[in-house]
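Revision sheet: structure tokens.
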Amino acid sequence: MQNWKKIFLIIWTGQFFSILTSYTVNFAVIVWLSINTGSAEILAYAAIASLLPQSLLGPFAGVYVDRWDRKLTMMLADGFIAFCTLIIAILFYLDLADLWYIIILLALRSIGSAFHMPAMQASVPLIAPESKLLKIAGINQSIQSVSTIAGPALGALAITAMDMEHVLLLDIFGAVMAIGSLCFVKIPNPDRMERESRRVLGEIVSGVQEVTRQAGLRWLFLFCILSTFCIMPVSVLFPLMTLNYFGGDVFQVSLIEVIWGVGMLIGGVVLSLIKAPLNKVILINSMYLVLGVSLSGSGLLAPSAYPYFVVLTALGGVSGAIYNSCFNTILQESIHPSMLGRVFSMYFSVALLPSLLGLVGIGFFADTIGLAQTFVLLGGVIFVLGIVSFMIPALRELGKKGVIGKAGPVINVVQDETKA
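Predicted:
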């Protein structure tokens, strides 16, 4: 086994436990909120808490991710998340916590994620050969998918068998496993293209310029922002859709989460197995269409048609896996490694901030026009975006090119070793 494969195997082992326990705890929290409040508005507030800090800190966090040691950044971010979870668990144990402590926990976890996610994604092209990036993205997606499948089942079991403070301890266990695995690997840091003395604001601007100077990436980001504006609000309604519209129970709520994970697993496995060159932009554009059909179709179903809701949810999971893998790979291929941290952070901030506006009003919107009608409307908008995206020449050119931009091909510090 080549060196880069050993590194990824060790990292993936720790990340698997971390992601699995995170999904388990997150689902337990969703069920706890759904049962104790039954409010779309509260679920929207929870989603805002888990996204807003990451969105606001993203541009600044990305700069420091590119400056700092990326391995240490990931370890500290995981440690911070574990510490915050431990504090909330103690409060629950002392019977001092309530609904808003859960919201605070989600916000604190988001701060850690603002540093961990870009550091992880920016490290990938420094470890693996460029030709393997899409395959690695598919494997990463498969790991997340397995966690998405197992997490809800474990979360439903945990929330019914344990008190909340014990459920939260699972998240701490996962963080410890992730930190421990990173202790056994060396993650290289890129040669910086800029002087260390440059101001933070200047580096944020350089990250923006790295994306905006490429017409194809500008359009890719724009469509991502518009689609996320629709996807994020409707995503928080899935538990209520199952409970209130289809008349389901906790098991059926967890089944929907599992089925979404099965779809993601299928999409990730397919990408990891395909060896032929793929036009990643065409795949992304097509996934808008698939996801639009999945969401709108779900809203058009009769309340007695829950099994078809399961099928459409799996289809949405496939589209999500392929979309995320292709999008991440395009950025890793197109942006110099020394700037990837701030570009990934900027992407999450720029994509998520507008969606927060949708989350603010989604509770009132869903309660006014209905859950099903909300699915139909937002799914229809995503479908239209998919049609329009095929009509943009710059996007078509982006899909034809392997690696684009003045930075040239991705610089891989282990390239010579992997050739051997």
